[in-house]
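User: Can you predict the 3D structure for this chain?
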Amino acid sequence: MTSACPLDCPDACSLDVQVEDGRLVSLQGNHKNPFTQGFICGKVRDIREHIEGPDRILTPLVRSGPKGSGQFRRAGWDEALDIVANTLGGIRHAHGGESILPFCYGGSNGYLTQGGVDARFFRRLGASRLLRTFCAAPSGRAATGLYGRMPGVALPDFVHSKLIVLWGMNPSSSGIHLVPIIKEARENGAKLVVVDPRRIPLARSADLHLPIRPGTDLPVALAIIRTLFEEGHANWDFLGKHTVEHEELRRRAAAWTLERAAGVAGINAGLLREFVDLYVATNPAVIRCGWGVERSRTGGSGTAAILAIPSVAGKFGVRGGGYTMSNSGAWKLDAAAQANEPETRTREVNMSQIGEALLNPQGPRIHALFVYNANPLATAPAQEKVRQGFLREDLFTVVHEQVMTDTAKLADVILPATTFLEHDEISRGYGGIVLHDSPATIARIGEARPNYEVFAELCRRMDLTKPGDPLDVRDLRHAVLHSDGHGGAREAQLRELGVAYPSVGPNPLPFVDSFPLTPDRKAHLCPPALDAEIPGGLYTYAPVAETPRYPLALISPASSQTISSTFGQLVKGPVPVEISPTDAATRKLRTGSRARLFNDHGEVQATVEVNPEIREGVLALPKGLWAKHTLNGRTANALVPDHVADLGGGACYNDARVEIEALPS
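Assistant: Here is the predicted structure, written as structure tokens:
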């Protein structure tokens, strides 16, 4: 049987599923998606441990002890759904619909399990709306403002590049199928540049590594832009034909010399000079901009500046030249076609500030929280605020989940959820440009149900169903696949190829096959809409305060085990915090030491790993960790402030500034 992985990764692997008596036997990659080349990452290869492991939630559960005690009793679906429907109905009647908040992210979900029947339910309740900002909010605003969600360079086309720049992106952990393509390109003579505060695996063999301080991407990118303009390397023909506002961009970059930017970034100015010379001299050149850039207070402007570089240099128009971030803009499919209900204009709540919203709301107090496709206690900033908010006695919390997460332990009602192999799904890659139609391949474990069934049943119980609502999964599938008017051709591709591609094809060439999706089809390098969103305007650098008390930047990158908190229960602990040899020696720490990381927001106790691959002044503790992975049940997010980025209200995970010291022995 065939399926596809919808998990939070750009690659969208196509899969062969071996099943016996409804149970998963093995999972391997296949070649229906040519980009993923028949191999899959270890996280998904071992998914049977997740599906059938001891943490799997098998039945609905109702809290039977104090909040946070982890005490639950089993319940049937009818009882559990009655409790949910009656309690939400009572809260809506007493406090209004906006006192109910859905909390979901959905990076690991496809079109059928995110933004469809769930949207129908919450819109008809009049619930508050969630701004999904943990990832891609600042970068999405930047890319849309400049290029209107134009697809970037297709990842398979990197094989044609002669210069590949990985900026804030570690494909070895989060997009592994790009690694062999980079290897092939390098065998064909391509150069590789890595911009990252760590010497990630690809940086070890790169031609150039720029280990910049976290949060300094903006001045570095502006210095590159300034140098391109001032030294005669701007492509004025391309700028005149395909861009607007390039003179304003030039003006705003003018103050950032290579020397000044290098000083802020904590690197030798010669490295920036080497980068510029290499970028100018090499064609085709492509920048793979990752999501590490956006995780700071100027992350939106930093992303915009990076994405502007290939326009200034005129690197588009040849295969393997330009930039790539998310290619989801290639698709015009709309999950909300399943909702059959227009979006409401109710109060918005930023998920990156959920702790503050639960404790000190601006607007109606949140009395009910419905969590699905998310694990906020493990993933949200200001972790202590989040914990205290969830522990409120007057907060009714429902969690629809596959395994017993840290968040589920704080619920009033837990509903067992299916994994992607247990329900029908439609998913697309946001790196590789491909669409998968994936029917269920294994029997459901226990009493698990997909959320499109759960929310449809809640609509029925709360009298929110309307004539014409797509209810059967076949109708939901049809609504999505035909939402852009090209469903017939897409259905034919799925039948014939097992995958489908957008109208621009799987390998569109920017500024040849596809153009900026802006009204004038030009790149806007200093768009007024983004300018108005930021005090001081786009490309304004506002550094995180470095203080003697908290001199170290704490980052929480993806790892080979966790891109998000999914599969976190399978990670063996404790997980160490990584520190440079210099910083470790200064603090008398060594590998295996027990230490406390702390700032004004909280404290994390962890073991130490001295790692020469990380630059001085930076600590790394992976994202996606659960309470069990540290010595005191707190993760990096306990130290992350809940202020937001300059664009899109994004979370600023890399703005954590901390100190570390040994714990008493």
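The mean pLDDT is 96. The chain has 21 helices and 26 strands.
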